[in-house]
Amino acid sequence: MTSSRHTVGRWLLDSADRRPAHPAIDDRGVVLTYKEVAARARDLAARLAGAGYGAGDRIATVSGTSADHVVAFFACALTGLTFAPLSVRLAPAELGALLTRTDPALILVDEEHERLLASALEAEPQRCPRASLGTAGVESHAPGSARPTPARAAADSDPLLLIFTSGAEAAPKGVLLSHEACFWTNLALDQAMPLREDDVVLCVLPQYHVAAWNVQPLLAWRTGATVVLERGFSPSRVLSLLETRGVTAMMGVPTQYRLLLDDPAWDQTDLATLRLAVSGGARLSPEVAQAWRERGTPLTPGYGLTEAGPNTLHLPAAQAADAPEAVGVPYPHVEVSLRDPESGLVLEGAAAGELWVRSPSLFSGYLDDPAATAQVLTDGWLRSGDLASRDESGRYSIVDRIKDIYISGGENVAPAEVERVLESHPLVARAAVVGVPDDVWGERGAAFVRPVAGAVLTRDEMEAHARSLLAGFKVPVQFTIVEDLPTGTLDKVERRHLRERAVAERRTR
Fold first, then answer.
1. Which of 69, 223, 57 is nearest to 154 (CA)?
2. What phi, psi does 252 have (nearest 5°)?
3. Which pLDDT belongs to residue 145?
4. In terms of Cα–Cα distance, which of 464, 476, 457 is closest to 418?
5. How many Cβ atoms sit within 10 Å of the Cβ of residue 65?
6. Yes or no: domain 405-507 corresponds to CATH 3.30.300.30
7. For 189-244, how does the pLDDT look when each residue is reduced to its tens digit (9 = 90+)?
8. What is the pLDDT of residue 261?
9. Would you tell me which CATH number, out of the four given (3.40.50.980, 1.10.443.10, 1.20.120.1810, 3.40.50.2300), belongs to the domain 9-17+30-182?
10. Could you write out the DSSP letters of every residue in 152-178?
11. Which fold has domain 233-401?
């Protein structure tokens, strides 16, 4: 007999029983109560089951953030279907390739992205039904399944979310997260940073990313709080929402927090209600953290992996000022370990090594890729691929991705360290460094630098700045001034593209 104690669909229904008239979603000013969202999710679940979709089937979505998207998620959660939100930032050929790998039983699309989906299907045709999201689409009529599956209630072990990783270094991997995994990661989040029924949570992350579900929104719907959905990120609009909606909690990436404090409306915006602002996805600069702290809203840094649910490490805001580089300590129910990257031996005390993670919120595996799954899982531990350090108090800091570290003249160079130095220049908005082959030194650094708006930077100026603060072997041999850097999910730099560009530029010299 399968267990259903940890199924996520129950959260919405329980909150609807407790607080039927309370706002569950504020979608660009359109407010839906818990009773309304639960009724729509129940009806859609029944409609999908009646059309032949059942546990084990995957429902792919091509959609921006919306209440319709949330209703589809909970309908899947109630029926054991796997919800697979695909990135709308992809090129049609890339999206088509992910659709083929997803092998969906049904594709749901919103009006804004119908053309993108059509182009993707031209590149990679799919033999499965398609429908529009919302009350005028699949919620009114669900096309019959091409491969009918018997209906049953959702089980703890059913995969709930299929999230594709960003693919910054290789082809994206499909990460399967079960109901049970989502239950535990939200339980840990609730114990570390609890939400209340009167909270108003602002969701500014795209819903094809795991954090848009498992870092605050799902916990908010479990608690009975209100979630304000934003389809994009406009700093001036977000600042207005913080004030007018009385937002109490949010999660964002460091770049978003930087853009907010750089906006002309920053000084005039009332942030009095905002009590919990979580930062993740990349390194939070001390300058940004200090600016938010001075406004009375300290940022709470954290670290996570899609494969871990994602919540892994967090640092209470009150401690962040004393440890500006740290991302914290493990969440409740999460174990971490530092290991020698080569031998896998445990490192004790203050040390640096690969971060390994073990918890009940770990993923079930990569979609149709047992070899890749076996490569990162060892005796129940997930190898993160990140080099981390631990201080004497037990707080962790992330040094860099192990595969991003390059060796120059026998010395290890962490790109993140070089990037921090380059970004300390007052005219630099952002920098990225990659290792490229070198006939003499093995590898040398290539830097890509984006100036602040309106600034003029030269390669010689950047090299002089780097030499004044770094050992010679860490100074990049190439400096390229760029208008922008290629980024993927959560604003992470896509180093693979930069590495290819750097190698090509080096060949032409």
1. 57
2. -150, 175
3. 97
4. 476
5. 24
6. yes
7. 999 999 999 999 999 999 999 999 999 999 999 999 999 999 999 999 999 999 99
8. 93
9. 3.40.50.980
10. ----TTSEEEEEE---SSSS--EEEEE
11. Rossmann fold (3.40.50)
Residue type, 331: Y
Predicted pLDDT of residue 1: 43
- Tell me the pTM: 0.88
Please, how many CA atoms are within 13 Å of residue 134, restricted to the half-sphere of its CB?
11
Give 54-76 pLDDT, tens digit per residue.
Answer: 999 999 999 999 999 999 999 99
Terminal C-alpha separation, the chain: 67
**Residues near 311 by beta carbon (within 8 Å), at least 6 away in sequence:** 185, 188, 189, 192, 214, 215, 302, 304, 331, 334, 361
- Give the CA count within 13 Å in the CB-facing half-sphere of 371: 0
φ, ψ of residue 454 to 5 degrees: the values are: 85, -10
Confidence at residue 167, expressed as pLDDT on a 0 to 100 scale: 53
What is the identity of the amino acid at 332?
P
pLDDT for 495 equals 86
Q: Is residue 177 within 8 Å of residue 218, measured between CB atoms?
A: no
Q: Which burial class, exposed, middle or buried, applies to 371 when counting CB atoms under 10 A from its CB (0-12, 13-18, 19+)?
A: exposed
Give the integer Cα–Cα distance in Å for 310 and 362: 8
Do 175 and 307 contact (CB within 8 A), yes or no?
yes
- 434 to each of 232, 342, 474, 495, how far by Cα in Å? 29, 22, 11, 7
Residues in the chain where the model's pLDDT stays below 70: 1-3, 166-170, 489, 509
**Is-cis flag, bond preceding 310, omega within 30?**
yes
Per the structure block, which two tokens stand in for 287?
């300058």
* One-letter amino acid of 80: G
Angle, alpha carbons 6-10-11 (nearest 5°): 95
